[in-house]
Design a protein that fits this description.
Blueprint (H helix, E strand, L loop, with lengths): L15 E4 L4 E6 L2 E6 L3 E4 L9 E3 L48 E10 L2 E12 L5 E5 L5 E3 L4 E8 L2 E8 L1 E4 L2 E4 L7 E6 L11 E6 L6 E2 L6 E13 L2 E11 L10 E4 L8
């Protein structure tokens, strides 16, 4: 039974009542099919009526209206708490950093700590493994040779500059063979391709941060320290004034660093 105003009941004639609030409804009986659209009302007194159902575009009051919805208002003294759904944050993954592997080849310069102190072994061909170990260096103007497989620790690199410390293996420096396992400090090295003078500034001063280094190891006592600091270079035409601002923290020892000058001669040789 359809509901009336205020929830009262109004007797209605038997039959099919149609009211469309949204969309379309097809009413089918033996006499045919009638389409009802949103906002239209219809009434068929019998399912076997000959004429199609009557369309009433405006509710004349005899049709039923949607039943009322009863609800209890919330108490103003005790309102329900607001529920705030936190936003779903996207998962941010750091970019995958592919380690730079030094490329083996010619044109590298090697500096190491050898039999007579710090040595510049000149230009040659450097060979690196997949871990950036310098495993061989040949073709330099200075007498140096790798005699056996080398073990390297404290390996680091920046672009085409690499460093490390040989601790096991045999090398010959200035025609003197050394078993590096007998050296407390091993043999630190620095290898890289030099920057051409044409690519360097001709004036001004630049300060370079320390990209990395091997540990400082006392060759006599085996004490281990650290190296920190920076390097300043005052550029002039064909002359570079180098000032190392370095600190070597070593147990029981005190170290100082000094400045120096390098010049480029007419034939691009340094002196």
């Amino acid at each position: 039974m359809p509901s009336g105003t205020g929830g009262s009941r109004t007797p209605l004639s038997p039959g099919l009542y149609v009211q469309v609030l949204d969309g379309l409804i097809n009413v089918t009986n033996p006499t045919g099919t009638q389409l009802f659209a949103a906002g239209q009302f219809g009434f068929a007194p019998t399912p076997n009526m000959t004429p199609p159902p009557i369309l009433v575009p405006v509710n004349p009051g005899i049709m039923f209206t949607p039943p009322p919805v009863f609800f209890h208002p919330s108490s103003t003294s005790n309102p329900p708490p607001d529920v705030v759904t936190p936003p779903i944050l996207p998962v941010v993954r750091p970019p995958v950093t592919v380690p730079v592997v030094l490329a083996s080849g010619a044109g590298y310069y090697l500096t190491n700590w050898g039999a007579d102190g710090l040595g510049n072994l000149g230009s040659g061909t450097a060979t690196f493994n997949a871990s950036n170990w310098l495993v061989n260096f040949t073709g330099s103007a200075m007498p140096f040779a790798v005699n056996s497989t080398l073990t390297v620790v404290e390996v680091g690199n920046l672009d085409d500059l690499g460093w490390g410390r040989w601790t096991l293996g045999s090398v010959s420096d200035h025609n003197v063979a050394f078993d590096l396992s007998t050296w407390r400090s091993g043999m630190p090295y620095l290898v890289g391709r030099p920057t051409l003078d044409a690519n360097l500034p001709v004036s001004g001063t630049m300060t370079y941060a320390l990209a990395g280094a091997t540990k400082a190891v006392d060759i006599t006592t085996g004490a281990v320290g650290t190296l920190s600091g920076a390097l300043s270079i005052a550029f002039q035409n064909a002359q570079y004034n180098v000032t190392p601002n370095l600190n070597i923290a070593m147990p029981g020892q005190t170290y100082v660093t000094g400045s120096g000058i390098t010049r480029v001669g007419p034939s691009s040789d340094r002196r």
